[in-house]
Amino acid sequence: MNERVEAPARPLSPAGHLRRILRIGFLREPLPVMGARGLASVNQLPSAIAAVIVIVLFLVADAQAALSAPGVWIGFVVITAATVAASVLPWTRWPEPAVLLVPLVDMLAFFVMTLAGFKTLTGISILMALPLFWLAWSRYRTGLVLAASFVMPLGVVWGQVILSGIELSTKALVKPLLVPVVLFSFTMTIAVMSLAVARTQARTRRALEKAEKHAVLLNAVLNTANVGVVVVDEAGRDLMMNDTQRTIHESLIPDDNSNPDEAGLLIFGADRTTPLPADQRPVRRAVLGAEYSDQLVWGGSQEAMRAFNASATQMLVDGQPSGAVIAFHDVTDLLDALAAKDDFLSTVNHELRTPLTSIVGYLEMASETAHLDPAVKVYLRVAERNAERLLALVGDLLDAAAGKVEIAREPVDLSEVLEGCLPSHKARAERLGVGLSAEVANRLDLLGDERRLGQIVDNLLSNALKYTPSGGSVNVSTYRSETGDPILEVTDTGQGMTVDELGRLFTRFYRTDTVRRSNIPGAGLGLAITNDLVEEHGGSISVSSEPGLGSTFRVEFPSAVVRN
Questions:
Q1: Phi/psi of residue 3, each to 5°?
Q2: Rg (CA), the chain
Q3: Using one digit for the tens of pLDDT, what is the confidence trace for 107-116?
């Protein structure tokens, strides 16, 4: 984007500086942000104009008297000199109160002018209000300024009484007191107003500093998050955008349009080819009042296309829409990972499970051959068990990678499922030297998937036999709870677990320290998958265990029988 470069402003000439001060003084130009010299010039302008008017009025009223009153001209010259000094002296080099010498000089000049010309020009003493107001507004030594606002006008009016030659009396001295009283009141009002303005400015400054800190904090937070965020008003105009969003926006700009609106950005639907209609694009949807959290869009050129999950929240002020916040999360890597997972599942299913199933089948057939050497049969059974273990591990990996398992819901007898699983585990228990007993209830109906329920039973029994040493025992039972729900319970006299280990027992790939040290094979997936299957059936699983004393796994399923 092309940026316009502005030429530096030329310094003003003395005449231009004076013209600017006059334009500000006559409200033809707003008061700019200026330094001490500029403020002194603007504050001195009323006194300078008043001094010129006084001279003009003197000459019009009585030119002879004006020419014969040197005090009037001395005061005018002093005010003129003070005006020049206010405009040219480098006040920033001195302490801040130094500039208040200008209104003090003005006050003395008006004092002299008033005493010299009061006989010709009535009310000239009121001009002392101009420097007094300046002093009062400065808030410097307010007490002294208030005292001067009464004492100096009082000296003027009593000086006029004395110079007029009238007889001094209480009446003569009291009669002109209204002028110093009024000037004192005005000065006090200005001082109070100045104090109020100063307090308001201080509050405004603190609020501005606080807002600036909040803005810096907000900007830091938005730029720290790895999410693109844009805030728009009710018309869709950008109010705020973090750095991540700027990067995303730049990646969506087409080559033939350097400054497009949202409708011109490279944003596509799920097929990555069809441009999204204007009213379905994330920002436009938000401007139209929609709130959403899961809009998936693709953006950018075909060679570098990225996927974004867009979400929007409306901003309300007094219940009325005032814009929206739209967030863009780059989920390209996540989608690539999901695609890779699907490829992995497909590969494992076709390249591992199928040949392993075939291997197990042929090993079973070979081991059942009648005229086979006994030693060879032992070798075949060992190979068969390891192949079955590998096949089970592949199944566990596939189930874990698949995430949520879909189950069928049909009436199933839990006791019947258990009886169907027991024979194969009894044979294994005999080989391991572990006693396996069962207590099976007559009938326990529930709604579930018979194959998946069998998997739950197999996993729990296999786990119990695996971690129970030779000479130990495993007991499995089914019964109804007090509320009539089917219960499956597996108790062993194996290694047991600590409280900390129980807290992580159903975490995928977790194996206890004792198990890892004992070199017992396993991947730490069986119990995690069992827990998922139980939850999918609407049930719950709990474990009680003590180190060295064994464990009890209790699974409770909801009954398929409707009870009154």
A1: -110, 135
A2: 48
A3: 899 889 888 8
